[in-house]
Write the structure tokens for this entry.
Amino acid sequence: KNKITYRELKGADTRPLFLKLRAMRGIKMKVDVIIPTYKPDKGFPEMIKRLEKQTLKPNRIIIMNTEEKYFEKLLYGTDFAREHPLVEVHHLSKREFNHGGTRHLGALHSSGDIFVCMTQDALPADNRLLEELTVPFLSDDRIAVSYARQLPEKDSGEIERFTRAYNYPEESCVKGKEQLSEMGIKTYFCSNVCAAYKKDIYQELGGFVRHTIFNEDMIYAAGAVQAGWKIAYAAGARVYHSHNYSCREQFRRNFDNGVSQAQHADIFSGVPSESEGMKLVKQTASHLFAVHKPWLVIKLIAASGAKYAGFWLGKHYKSLPARFVKACSMNKDYWL
């Protein structure tokens, strides 16, 4: 009878609501953080420090590291284990890494009620990231996944800044089967750059697909929605994360996206991505004119062309020569 819906939290200070909801349900919540790493840079220790200072302190920070030598090189001369007692590191070879399988292995190491997947370049914007990610689970038992808002970094270009704002707006929302007719593929949108998963639901649904080149987060989210669960976008949970990809990198990234969608046509064929992509291009072009930077439209057209070409080829990868497929792909080790 005291249920608070997540929609009531929009624009509110969620700190007192978080505490109220947790008290109402008598919940002592354990949250683990899982971070796959590969050649982590000097900014990675700062990410760990920010996670350790969260208002909802993580139970453990589980690092699934690819190639031990690169991790040891970063930490040379430091006593990492003593300085960060919440961290545990599991090493694997480059051939063993897989977008879905490695994260699933991390989830098996987790003993939390909730585990949060992050990428090594996602920097918490404040000390309330984990708290904000867990509010949706406390407010609605049907939520399986909660994902964070991604803010552009200081060096982001105008196009990337608009793209982040388009995909990660200021307003939170909850998505389920009821939204499919209205939102299409955006219903399944979810990002393991920073996303929280309810462990018991994750186990019930079988977890991430074990072998996939891309989209393990959206594939899981789609399965959850089809099974009657919901996906929450928690705009109050914020991380800094953006990319200034070249056209070549955009091509390769979207090639892998196309491969993923072709391999899981049962999920994606009914909710095509192309219309959503065209909508983003049109709105970005309008924005560039509005901010008096029309010359960037040329860059937008080139990048959009590279994205579409990569995506189209990826969707038809089965008809292409194996060597050409590998050359087009961003994740080349997937094809070994």
The longest helix spans residues 296-315.
